[in-house]
Amino acid sequence: MMSNPLKFQPQLKNLIFSLLWLIAATVSAQETTARQNLSFNTDWEFKKMDGKDNWQKVSLPHTWNAVDMQLGKDFYEGEGQYQKIVFLGEEYKNKRLFLRFEGVGQVAEVLVNGKSVGKHKGSYSAFCVELTYDVNLGKENTILVKANNTARKDVIPVNHFLFGIYGGIYRPVSLIVTNKVNITTTDYASPGIYITQKNVSKESANIAFEVKLENKETTAQALEIVSTVYNKEGKVVSSHTTKELCSPQGRQSFRQEFVLKNPHLWQGLADPYLYKMKVSILRNNEVIDEVEQPLGIRKFEIIAGKEFLLNDKPYPMYGVCRHQDRWGYGNALTNDQHREDLEMIKEMGATTIRFAHYQQAEFMYSLCDTMGMVIWAEIPFVNAQTGEEAENAKQQMMELVKQNFNHPSIYTWGLHNEVYARNPADYVATVSRDLNDVAKTLDPDRYTVSVTGYGEMTRPANLTTDIQGMNRYWGTYNGKILDMELWATGLEKAYPNYKMMLTEYGADGNVFQQKEAALVSDTVGNYNGPYLPETFETKVHEQQWPIIAKHPYIIASYIWNMFDFAVPMWSRGGVPARNTKGLVTFDRKLKKDVFYWYKANWSKEPVLYLSERRVVDRKNAKTQVRIYSNVGKPELFLNGKKVIVAPVIDTTGFLYAYDVVLKKGKNIIKTNARKDGKILNDEMSWMFKGEVKK
To answer: Which of 125, 271, 551, 575 has the most CB atoms less than 10 A away?
Structure first.
């Protein structure tokens, strides 16, 4: 990064300042209008380059795999093209024009009037290209985007195995208009402003930021950089101004530091308080560019083997993982759909989200800031390696950090998931060290994490980061459900000073396959098989969450997954191309029993829920009714009669199991409980067609 040579010549600097203020006074009002950020999502045409399709009108976001990738292996993998004709008037003279793409799957090239203006490798990060020199003002211009979702050895992810790489311009696009002196848009498509905070307490916080400027005028420019911090009510709580000379040679970086007294801290879900920082660039007292960013003042800390701290206080890390696709839409989701996902996660009582296995929509990170979720963000270095993806992985690490640097909700950067090395000098281990260096050089104040699919602390590729993540599927891929207890106990005894997280756990649960809990074994059997009933998933979580809850050594745990999602290369559990480990179905229409299990354990909202409600046809007259309740012991009624027998209560205190005997035919089961003077109710029916043995 180039320093500003004029800073070291004070007398020359003052003289140039005086001259340039006079020159700046003649700049027209048109030239000093601040930037515009214009939606560029309508009036596109699209066609697949398979020789079969004609141009069709589309709006963005758009993917061509909204259906086929969710049904099986026979999906379109290849190139698609998007075309837009746009008239650009003379009002853009003396301006700079950029197109910013938030996500294109997965290799993209942008052409303006037939000339290539930029290429990008990577489906999940944003990129920005400049149009200034290739558009014709006062005329129509043709924007052509070539997108290709073919899996490649040099671009992560390198295959479609764990999840499909959807094709298309599946996130929003914007046209950014700036003056010739502007806050950069092309520093890996970042906002051009990087806010840091140190020594955070309720008494004060040291705030600093770096802003990167570009000057496309022919002379150095005398500028004022003004930073303004607004509170939630829009009142100015801090403002600082520095005078700088911005050279026309190279990208320039400038920095400000100040102390914010008695800050209102960002306290997660309890109080996600956000300030707003506006950085304005002035020339001759006129704003020529400005950018706003969120400012949430907080401090994260992990005490190995003990707890996660937010602002020096223990913070429970009840976590889920989230994939970004949805049935019938692919990954081309609207903001309303993203919001719906987060609202369901919040309803369940989760406090932290692992956005897996790639950078997700900017709207999601912003909404987590305002909602108060604590976030893990990662790149798609997953499942396999080819030996050719190192440079692209480092590029995507750079993009992830720079583009999301200012989100207060993010506490860690994820480097990789389930890619392995034989020894510390092996390819994946050395790439992992490089990725860690990228993240730590850009952002030394956040943690880094890598994830292994083994339950061993000494995996070579996973000892290069601050946090060791482990994916453990006891009962599915490993041993029996309760083996998790021995694993957790063994690790905390052998490695007491390691920061460890359980980064995936759970089981498949097809809601169209049901089995009485009493008949479900402690292992799934063939996890590749056609039968993976919802009841097994429920059993896994009912037995494993109490183990996790009593082991503070597990700093955070993340359920795999919040939502069922597409895996086009799989055929498991009777549903082609589907991972059914979600707590909610792929279409978001049905919350499985296990959703309410965690809601009872995690949420402060009252929960009373009868489990196994979809196991309607019963084989045993003597059975259990299992109730999730966080409002105390519920009453149970079977066919209108109160069940007198005392329930078995599990170690969490939220599961009540009543032994009952069903009658032949239809059985009506009701429960109620009282909370703050209000009565909660739930009801279901079971059908027993056998004979009741006396």
So the answer is: 125
**Does a cis peptide bond (omega within 30 degrees of 0) precede residue 61?**
yes
pLDDT 10s digits, 66-92? 999 999 999 999 999 999 999 999 999
pLDDT, position 47: 97
Residues 157 and 380: their CA atoms lie apart, in Å, by 5
- How far apart CA 565 and CA 542 sit, in angstroms, is 22
pLDDT per residue as tens digits for the range 408-466? 999 999 999 999 999 999 999 999 999 999 999 999 999 999 999 999 999 989 999 99
Cβ neighbours of residue 252 under 8 Å, at least 6 residues apart? 2, 4, 212, 213, 214, 215, 244, 246
Q: How far apart are CA 598 and CA 591, in angstroms?
A: 11
| Structure tokens, 316 | 């429970």
CB 593, CB 586: distance < 8 Å = no
Single-letter code of the amino acid located at 252: Q
Tokens standing for residue 199? 């020594």
For residues 573, 579, 584 and 588, what is the CA-based torsion angle, rounded to 10 degrees?
A: -110
Q: For residues 347 and 598, what is the distance between their CA atoms, to the nearest angstrom?
A: 10
By C-alpha distance, which of 170, 171, 172, 164 is closest to 68?
A: 164
CB-based burial of residue 642 (10 Å sphere; 0-12 exposed, 13-18 middle, 19+ buried)? exposed
Length of the chain: 694
Q: Are 367 and 375 in contact (CB under 8 A)?
A: no
Name 213's bridge partners.
183, 252
Q: In terms of C-beta distances under 8 Å and separation of at least 24 residues, what long-range contacts does 455-458 make, across chains too?
A: 455/487, 455/491, 457/491, 457/494, 457/495, 457/498, 457/500
Secondary structure (DSSP) of 561-580: -SB-EEEEEEEETTEEEEE-
Q: How far apart are CA 223 and CA 244, in angstroms?
A: 5
Q: How many CB atoms lie within 10 A of CB 178?
A: 24
CA-to-CA distance for 325 and 579, rounded, in angstroms?
Answer: 12
- The first and second tokens of residue 391, run together, are 């440079």
Q: How far apart are CA 675 and CA 677, in angstroms?
A: 5
Give every CB contact of residue 174 below 8 A, 6+ residues apart in sequence. 37, 38, 39, 40, 99, 100
pLDDT digits (tens, 9 = 90+) for 15-39: 343 434 334 433 333 444 789 999 9
Report the sign of the C-alpha dihedral through residues 150, 152, 155, 156, in that order. Answer: positive
CA dist 466 and 490 (Å) reads 20
The whole-number average pLDDT for the span 276-288 is: 97
Q: Which of these is catalytic: 31, 418, 534, 612?
A: 418
Give the tokens for residue 613.
Answer: 């409600």
> For residue 544, how many other CB atoms are within 10 A of its CB?
26
Span 470-492, pLDDT tens digits: 999 999 998 999 999 999 999 99
C-alpha distances (whole Å) from 624 to each of 25, 209, 669 are 83, 60, 11
